């Protein structure tokens, strides 16, 4: 007889523990709704911020599409090699281009100062890269130019 009573008591205890663990005993509907509404409001604000950011990006892209045009950084064409360096809006007149010892070197030093309500800011950036000149290139005919937001080095091949 003791076993008949013990089994239902243990089953009820296990069931109530499971129900309690899943939060089914103490459900406060008003608190749950309040929490859900707060989460909805939080995510709606974040979604609006992301939409605003996308609008800003599209507006900037429309103002100057050349800054966002993707091109291959290296091409081996039939008549020349082409190297491109993305300027990311940097001023091309700050670039130093040099050919020496079978190497093409490109360097840039940019410094800017800005004063705002939050303080005084000084920014300094340096960029440097070098490419070896392939043996089949006519060194005296190497050219460079600006193409949109790219600094382009063209190395014509010997015929």
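Q: What amino acid sequence fits the structure above?
A:
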């Amino acid at each position: 007889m003791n076993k008949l009573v013990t089994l239902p008591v243990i089953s009820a205890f296990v069931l109530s523990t499971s129900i309690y663990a899943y939060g089914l005993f103490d459900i406060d509907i008003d608190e749950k709704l309040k929490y859900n509404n707060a989460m909805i409001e939080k995510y709606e604000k974040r979604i609006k911020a992301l939409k605003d950011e996308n609008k800003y990006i599209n507006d900037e892209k429309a103002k100057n599409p050349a800054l966002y045009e993707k091109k291959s950084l290296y091409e081996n064409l039939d008549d020349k090699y082409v190297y491109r360096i993305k300027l990311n809006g940097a001023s091309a007149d700050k670039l130093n281009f040099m050919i020496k010892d079978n190497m093409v070197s490109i360097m840039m030093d940019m410094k800017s100062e800005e004063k705002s309500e939050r303080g005084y800011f000084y920014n300094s950036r340096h960029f440097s890269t070098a490419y070896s000149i392939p043996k089949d290139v006519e060194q005296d005919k190497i050219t460079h130019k600006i193409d949109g937001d790219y600094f382009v080095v063209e190395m014509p091949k010997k015929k």
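Q: And what stands out in the fold?
A: The first helix runs from residue 2 to 21.
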